[in-house]
Task: structure prediction
Amino acid sequence: MKISQISVFLENKKGRLYEVCRLFGENGINIRALTIAENDEFGILRMVVNDPEKAIKVLKDNGIVAKQTEIIAVEVEDKPGGLAGILKELEDSNVNVEYMYGFVEKHTDKALMVFRFDNIDEAIKVLTKNNIKIVAKNDVIKL
Amino acid sequence: MIWEEKIECMAPADLKNIQSERLKALTEYVYKNNSVYRKKFDAIGLIPSDVKTIDDIRKLPFTVKDDMRDSYPFGLFSMPSKDLSEIHVSSGTTGNPTVVGYSKQDLKLWSNVMARSLCCAGALPKDTIQIAYGYGLFTGGFGMHYGALEMGLSVLPTSSGQTKRQLKLMNDFKPRILACTPSYALYMLEDAAEMKMDPRKSSWEIGVFGAEPWSESMRHEIEDKWNMLATDIYGLSEIIGPGVAQECAYKDGLHIFSDVFYPEIIDPATGEAAPEGASGELVITTLTKQAIPLIRYRTRDIVSITHQKCICGRTSPRISKIKGRTDDMIIIRGINVFPSQIEHVLLSVEGVQPHYQIIVDRKAGRLDEIEIDVEVDEKFFSDEMKKLQGIEHKIQKELESVLSVFAKVRLVEPRSIPRSEGKAKRIIDKRTI
Result:
C-alpha cells in the first residue's frame, strides 16, 4: 500500500536538477511524479520513480544525498470538490498532510495524487474506512 | 602631550634597567605564586635567580593560548580569586573561554596604559570621548573607559550598536574623540547619510580604532570621509585588553609600552629571536601584572619592530600594524573566531558532520559578515523543508551563543566544499583589509 518516494537535496544552482534527471535517464529510471520544495538556497526534489532502490543507489554512487520516504498514492475524483472530500475525512480524524503533489498520468479516470502524512498508518486507516482508493505499489510503477 | 613623559621618553639604557629589575621580580613572583609556571621552570631546571637582566628573558619558557585554556579557570592566576577586582573573558579556541583577571593594581596599570594610549593618539584633558566599543565581558569598552577617566576626559559611554543614537549624541555633545572598531567607523557612514548628516562636519577629530586588523586604505577612507585622524590601537585580553600599543599622530608604527609589556619578535617555527626589522611573532611578557602575569606569551600576531626614536619624542619601540596570524584565527567585528569553535558546535548537533567552510565578507559600508557552509549529510537530510531549516536555525543559535556573533548557516551539497590534498580549505576571507 505504501510506496517509496525519493527525496534529493539540491543546491539552488545551475545544472543540479539536470544532473539528477541525466543520471536517471542513463540508468533507465523513469520518473512518475515529482515536485520541488525550495527556499533561497536549496531545494528538496521529491519523486516517485519506477525503481526506487536502483534510483537511490545511482544517486548515492554519484555523491548525491538522497533518502526514501513512505508515502501513499490516492485516487481522487477528477471533479470539483474531489480533493476536498478526501481532506475533510483526514481533517476530521486529525491526520496532517505534510505535503502532496499530483501525477501527470491517470491510473483510471480518476486523478492520482501523492500524499505525505505525519502519521501514515493512521491515514491509511482513515482512507480505507472511507472507501478512498489507495493505489498499489505495482500499479503506480506500471503507469 | 605625553602622559608618562619620564618613562615614555626614557633613555634606552635606563629603560633596560627598569625592565631588568621588573623581570627579576616577576620571575620570583610567579615561581612563588603559580604552580603552572613553577612546573614549567622546574622542567627546564630554571630557578628565579638565573634571571639577572632583561636579556635573560630568552631562558624563560613560552606561554601559549592552550596554557590558558587548559588551566581554566584559575590555573594561571598568581593570586587568589577572592583578591580580584574584575574579570573579563573572551571566547576560547574550543570549549573554555579565555579568562583574564585584574587586581586593583592591574586596573591601575590598565588605566595608566590606556591614558598613555589616548594621549598618544592626541587626546587632551577635558576632551570628550565617545566610547563605542562594547562594554561588558569584552575588554574594549571598560579599558577605554578607565583610561579616559584617568586622563581627565569626559566620557560618553555609548557602547556598540544603535548607530543613529550614536550619531545623534555625537551631534549633541560634540565629542572630539571616537573609539570603536574601524569597520564600525565606516559602517556609521550609511546611517549618517540616511540622517542627511555631512560626515565631514562631525565633531570627531581623532579616532582610536582597534580590535581588528585594518589596512592603510581603510585608514584613508575613514580619514577622508569623516575628516578625522584615524589612529591604530593594539591590545589583547590575555595581556590586558586595549592599551598594549598605540600610534601617535605620525602614524609610523604603534608605540608599545615596553616598560610594562616587554615585546620580543620571534621566528614562530624555531622560537628564536628574529632580526631587528624582520617580521615575526610578537611575544609579550607582562612585567608588572599581579593577577595573571604572563611570561613570554605568544600572541600569534605577526609584526615587525623598530627601536628607533620616533619624531614625537617617545623612545619606546614601535610595532608595525598586524601583518597576519600564525594560526587560523579570524576576527569578526572585534570578536576572535577560531574554526575549531565552529567545528565543536557542528559536532554537537546530531547528525551534522564537520564538513564546513567559513566565508567572511565585508561589503562596502557594511559590518563584517560570516557565513558557514555546511555539507548536508544523509544522517540529517529530510524530505521536509521545515526539518532542514530547523537544523540551520539550531546551528545558527548554537554558534551565536558560542561565538557571540551571528553567523549565517547555509546547507550545501556534499563534497561541494573544495578539498586540496585531502584537506578542506576552511576559511575564505573575502575582506579587503
